[in-house]
Amino acid sequence: MSKTSFLSAFFAMGLVCFSVFAFATEPTEPVVSPVPTKAVAPAPHCQVPCGIYGDEMRFEGMLEDTQTIAKAISQIEEFATGLEAGTAPTAKGMNQMVRWVTTKEAHAQNIQDVMAEYFFAQRIKSDHKDYTAQLATAHKVIVCAMKCKQDASAPTAEALNEAILNFYRAYEGKEPKFHEEEK
Questions:
Q1: Where is the signal peptide (predicted)?
Q2: DSSP-assigned letters across all residues of 61-115
C-alpha cells in the first residue's frame, strides 16, 4: 500500500469515526453541517385526531426497521473484520460502511419517532389499566433504539426486537403474531 493510499484510507476512516462519534454523543451546542441537507419530517399518522389508527402496521414497521438495523450491524461487523485481518480498505468498501451506519441510524430514529409521535402522543392513555407497564416497555423501546445508534453489535438489535415485542404484549395484552415469526 502506498503512502498516499494509506493516508487517504486513514483520513477516510477518521471521517467515519468522527461521523460515528458525532451520532453517538449528545451535542452540547448545535451541530451545523457544512453540507446542506434536506430536512425530512417524520411521517406519523395525523394528530387531528381522525380516529384512524394502524397499531399493527406500526409494530410491523418497527420490527422491519429492527431487521434493517440487524442487517446493517452485520455488514458493519463484516467490514471491521476485514480491517482487523489486515485487508486494506477500499473507497467502495468505506462508502458502503458509511451507508450502513447511516441506514442503522435512520431506522433507529424512525422507531423513536413512531414511539414518541404515535404511541406516546396518541395511543398510550393514562386511564388504561396497564398504563405503567405500557410506559415502562415503551421507554425501553426508545432506549434500545438509542443503544443501536451508539453501538454496532448484534445484541443491541436483538434487545430492540425483544423490547418491541414486550411493548406489544403490554400494549395489546396478548402475544405477538407477526409475519417474521411465521418463518
A1: 1-24
A2: HHHHHHHHHHHHHHHHHHHHHHHHTTPPP-HHHHHHHHHHHHHHHHHHHHHHHHI
- pLDDT at 180 (0 to 100): 52
Could you report the per-residue pLDDT of 62-97, keeping only the tens digit for each? 999 999 999 999 999 999 998 888 888 999 999 999
CA distances to 52, 79, 84, 98, 119 from 124, in Å: 15, 40, 46, 36, 6
Q: How many CB atoms lie within 10 A of CB 148?
A: 27
**pLDDT score recorded for residue 7:** 41
Among candidates 139, 123, 146, 137, which has minimal Cα distance to 166?
137
* Dihedral (Cα; 40, 159, 155, 70), 10-degree rounding: -40
User: H or E segment at 155?
Assistant: helix 154-172
Domain 3-24+56-175: CATH architecture, name and number where available: Up-down Bundle (1.20)
| Cα 165 to the center of its chain, rounded Å | 16
Rounded-to-integer distance, Cα 6 and Cα 22, Å: 24
pTM of model > 0.90: no
In angstroms, rounded to a whole number, what is the distance separating the alpha carbons of residues 115 and 109?
10
What pLDDT, in 10s, does the model give residues 149-158?
A: 999 999 999 9
